[in-house]
Every structure is written in structure tokens, then in C-alpha cells.
Amino acid sequence: MNVPEDLRYTPDHEWLRLESDEGTVGITAYAADELGDIVFVELPAPGSRLEAGSTFGAIESVKTASDLFAPVSGEIVAVNEQLSGSPELINSDPYGEGWMLRVRLDDPSALDALEDAAAYRTRIGAA
Amino acid sequence: MTDGTALATSARVGAAMAPEEARPGAGRQAMNAALQPTLAELSRPGRGGGKVPHPPADALARIPASALRSAPLALPELNEPEVVRHFVNLSHLNYSVDSGFYPLGSCTMKFNPKLNEWAARLPGFATLHPLAPDELAQGTLELMHELQEALAEISGMAAVTLQPAAGAQGELTGILMIRAYHAARGDVARTEVIVPDSSHGTNPATASMAGFRTVTVPSAADGGVDLAALKDALGPHTAAVMLTNPSTLGLFERRIVELLDAVHEAGALAYMDGANMNAVLGRFRPGAAGFDVMHFNLHKTFSTPHGGGGPGAGPVACNERLAPFLPAPLVVKAAPGSYRLERPEERASAIGRVRAYQGNVGVLVRAFAYIRAHGASGLREISDDAVLAANYLRQRVGQGYELPYAGPCKHEFVASGRALRQATGVRTLDVAKRLIDHGFHPPTIYFPLIVDECLLIEPTETESVETLDLFAEALLAILTEAHDHPERVKSAPTSAPVRRLDEASAARKPELRWRPMTGAGTPCPT
After folding, report:
1. What are the residues of chain B with a beta carbon less than 8 Å away from any beta carbon of chain A?
2. Of the residues A51, A96, B17, B145, which has the maximum number of CB atoms within 10 A of its CB?
3. CB-based contact B504 A64, cutoff 8 Å
4. Domain shared by B183 and B313, yes or no
């Protein structure tokens, strides 16, 4: 299972990629695989707030529906508009075209509270 | 199928039969075909099935011009045998408890006795107008009153409403009653409803619809609710806790007394999701255990038909504390030997009406017939046999599949296809689809969410041991096949009227508009 080294992870299977004070958020390949074919994703509007650990949206697959949890606090600066028409991008490219939103972090050091790739790999039992 | 069209089109293209083969069978309208042409497609101008009396010559002139159609209504034109064959052939595509084993977990797909149908069709019940005055509805009112009393007795509760049309509506009714109870005490700080992570999805949906925030608590390792986690979540903001007992894992909640004590100590009320009552009739009375309110699913526990979209019935039972808030009108005793509906405003604290008229009365008649046909000892025997059947099947299925929870189960059990998936890549979804080729309706899969590659199997008491054996053998045969020929399992079903449906495309790009069927073998008008 693909767990990129340069990302940080939540216990709820979201990932965060930090570039200066902005982070990109999505869900992991493991989560996408467990959900199965994703058919719908509900995301907040740009400009709204993210609160670490709180629900920021919902994702629905042919199998189940699940909440999405914010890895960090901050202001949403962009949302992946493509996902409303093509939610399957989350299955096909969870770390690339399947990204969900970009957030300006209140505090870039909040990253330290998230798991690194090795810890996340252990959590999901991946080799 | 990857063309992104909706279910119906996918199913047509995926049909097991080649178009050329359809021609010889054309005289017997598509008995083996995947889908039937619609009535609109079978229509021919001028064809009909009966004589409609001619209206007076000046009929059109009497209707205001503004109310006249500008174009004729596009109704299908067919004769009677065409219509009958259309619906009979459609019914042959259906799978039901009348055609085979239907072990859909958490749904209690038991056989629906035909005696119930006789009772519901008695003219006094079947032809009663819903607005008939009480004096003309005494038989039906008496039956409803007796059913209220019977359900109160079975649940150990004080009072019952028969109005809700389904289990989920029963949940909403119960939670609205709890909201009204807290509001009546002036306790408006209670904004949360707690549900375990094994709960039916309708529980959090109910809480949310009633205006509460849902708090989820995890299960303990034994499958029961984690008492410590529940105590942590409870507080002055908790309005209610919704529990399912036995749980969706098919396990009786062993800490029920401690759990309910903790709920009440926090000033909250306890709701019981009664979907799994088929496990405990005559053995466990939720009201006596301390639950404040619960719903029944008459279409599960009490053998009324379901699975075709209803109608169901989800009566709600509650204790004395919540009885003032029950929806109105209840059926009450009037003069000796007579019954009436509560009058408007008679019980001011009622949350109001939750369903038009008196609920799905035809369903209530069937459930009453079932309860009276079995009696108290018979109902207890039903649950005992349901539990026995589930434990027998659990042992058989456990010969090949993982059983994540140790010990005996109640009326249903969970098995897991996790090891199978790791070893062969065959998923539980594939196993379920392959069961169709073996002639069985698949069990519930991927629920509850806390079990990987979950199968939730509920045989019910109405199946013979031979049926249980055949089903277990089919599941075990699929296991062997998954190792030897995984592609066969992954491409199942092959013997059903349609192959695997493209659920993802159907959900992502639903095509909801009817289009005429085209192509060879279909009698589509050009």
C-alpha cells in the first residue's frame, strides 16, 4: 500500500502535504481502497475554517459513508472542484489529482502532532 | 461496464443472453431475458383491454377550455393478456422469501404466513375508509387496541403508538418524544445523542434529523458497548443514548444494567432500537431492563412482508415517563366494550401526529394475526428457534470463515472474509455475488462497519436444517473456488438475469430518464 514518505497522516486516514505555510489535504490510498468506489464527496467552501480533529466534509462510496476530519486548523484557500464531477479521482490518484483542499495553517508546527509515514504504515499494518 | 450509464442500461447490456437467442423465445415474452420491455414499448395505437362507456356528446363542451389538454395523454395501449404477462414476467425476475432462503442480517427476512394475508383481506379490515367514524370502525379499533396492549406486554412498556410506518420513523418518533420530555422539564441544554459504533446507520441519522449532535462511542473487545467510554461521553449535554440489543453483531449486551444505570445517572434517557427483537421475545423485556422507549419492526419480528419497499410498521413503546408525549391519536377504551381514537387536543403534551390516518393498518392486522396465532409461549419458541438456527449456521460457516467474536450468538452472527481477501484477492462482495449463482440471496455485507470484510447472516426460525446446510455448503464451496479459480468468483453472478451492476457509475452519473430499449430481440416500436 502506497504511503508516501513526504506526507503526514491522521489516525482517520487523511494526509497533509506542507509547502511553506500552506498544506494540501486528502485521504490515503489505504482509506480509498477500504471505502471502495467513491461516488460522492462533500467539501467546505474556500474561505471557511478548518478546526483540527473536527469534521470538514463527508465522503460516500458504494459501500459506506464516512466523515472527513481536519488534520490541522487553518483557513481553506482552495478546494478541488474536480471532485464534485469526478470523485473517482480519489480512488485512482489519492495523493495527486484526488486532493481535497488547500489550507493556510494557523501554526505550521501543528504538523508535529501528525503521524509520519512509518507510524502510519504501522497503524494500517502495511509492510 | 464502464460506459457511465445507469443501472437499467448496464443491466441490459450485461444480460447473459445473446440478442440472437432472444428470437425463438419471443412468443413467451422474454422469460429468460434480462429486462422486460416497458408498457410504453409494448404499446400499439388503438389496442385496448376493455370498453370505456362513451361520455355524453357534449362532455368536452362542458369542461372549461382552460382545463382541457392541448395534446392527448401518452398512455400505453395494450390488451389485458399483455398487461398480465408483463407483470407476471417481471415478478419472475424477483427473489423473495417465497422463492428461497434470504439470510439478510439485521433484516429478519422470515417467512410471511399466508394466514396473515387472509386476515388482512377480510372485508371489514380491507374496505374500511380511514375517515370512517369510530362507531363504524369498532372491529379495527379493537384490534389496534389489543395490538397496543400486546406490544406493551412484549416490551415491558406502559404505552404504545402504532402510527410510525417503519423502524426509522419509529426512531424519529421516540427521539422527538425524548426531546419533548426534556423540553417539558425546562432542560434545554441536552443537545447530544450517543450511539455505539456498531449502531444501525439510521440511529445517527435520526438524532441528526431531530436536531441533536451525534456522539459515537466505541465497542469493547467483546463486541458490547465500552462502559468506560460511554461514561466519558455522558454528561449534562446528553439527551439520550440509543442502543441496539442484541447488537448488530448478534450479541446480547451483557452490561445492559450498568449501561442503563450510567445513562439515567447522567439525566439522559435510553432508547432501544428494537430491530433485533426476534432474538429475545419472551426472554428479555426492554422496559423491565430500564429502557425508556423503543420501536418494533413489525415487518421483521412479526412476519409482515417487506423487502419490496414496504409498507412496514414501526410502533413505538415507552414507559410511564414518556407516555404523555406519544403521538396522537392513540386508540383508547370508551364505554365498556367499545373503542375510540383520542380527540384532537385531548392530550396536550403529545408530539403530534407522525403519520396520516392511523398508520399502515393492513400491516397491523397481519402482525396481530401472527401474535395471536402463536401466543406467548409460541413467541418465545420463535426466538429460541431463531437463536438456535443462527448458532447452528455460525458453527457451519465458521468451518471456513473467520468468526471475529467468540462464543454463542443470538439471532444473527458476523463472519469475516478478511483472510480470504488477503490470500486470494477475492472480496466479501464477490462471495456475496457468487451466492446468487448458488440460488441464495446474499447476506448483509460490509455492515456493521467495525468488522473487516463483514458478512452479517440472519437465518431466522423459519428455515429447515437442510436449508441451513445447503447455504453453509455453498459458502464453503465458494471459499474453495476463490482459491482455485478466483476469477470465477470475481465475475459472479453468471446465472442471474443480470450480471454485476455498475454501482459506482449508477451513483456517480445516475441516468434517471427513461429511454426506449433498442437493439435486436426487443419489440421496440420504431
Report:
1. 201, 429, 446, 449, 503-504, 507-508
2. B145
3. no
4. yes
The CATH number for A98's domain is 2.40.50.100
Q: Which of B372, B388, B410 is the last residue of a domain?
A: B372
Predicted TM-score (pTM) of this structure: 0.85
Chain B residues inside the 8 Å CB shell of A40: 507-508
Place of cell 501554526: A107
Chain B residues within an 8 Å CB radius of A36: 429
Contacts 24+ apart (CB under 8 A), B377-380: B377/B282, B379/B154, B379/B281, B379/B282, B380/B281, B380/B282, B380/B283
Assess whether pLDDT exceeds 80 at residue B31.
no
Q: State the nearest Cα–Cα gap between B222 and chain A, in angstroms.
A: 21
* C-alpha distance from B496 to closest chain A C-alpha (Å): 21
Nearest to A39 among B201, B429, B507 (CB): B507
- The pLDDT value given to residue B171: 98
| pLDDT tens-digit series, residues B486-499 | 999 999 999 888 88
DSSP string, B110-172: ----HHHHHHHHSHHHHT--TT--GGG-HHHHHHHHHHHHHHHHHHT-SEEE---SSHHHHHH
Q: Which residue has the cell 422469501?
A: B97
* Chain A residues closer than 8 Å to B201 by CB: 65
How much is the mean pLDDT over chain B? 90
From the number of C-beta atoms within 10 Å of its C-beta (0-12, 13-18, 19+), residue B307 rates as middle
Which SS3 state, helix, strand or coil, does residue A34 take? helix
Do B273 and B246 sit in the same domain of this protein? yes
Domain annotation covers residue B263: yes
- B156 found inside a domain: yes
Kindly report whether the peptide bond that precedes residue A87 is cis, defined as omega within 30 degrees of 0: no
pLDDT of residue B72: 79
Whether the Cβ atoms of residue B473 and residue B435 lie closer than 8 Å to each other? no
Domain count along chain A: 1
From the CA atom positions of chain A, what is the Rg in Å? 13
Q: Where is B339: in which H helix or E strand?
A: strand B339-341
Lowest mean pLDDT among B3-7, B118-122, B439-443, B464-468: B3-7
Min Cα distance B30 → chain A (Å) is 31
The answer to whether residue A49 is domain-embedded is yes
Predicted pLDDT of residue A127: 54
Same-domain pairing of B432 and B526: no
CB atoms A62 and B503 under 8 Å? yes
pLDDT at B6: 32
Q: How far apart are CA B314 and CA B414, in angstroms?
A: 25
Nearest-CA neighbor of B429 among B341, B490, B372?
A: B490
Q: Give the separation between CA B107 and CA B456, rounded to whole angstroms.
A: 10
Beta carbons of B321 and B423 less than 8 angstroms apart: no
Query: What CATH number is associated with residue B136?
Result: 3.40.640.10
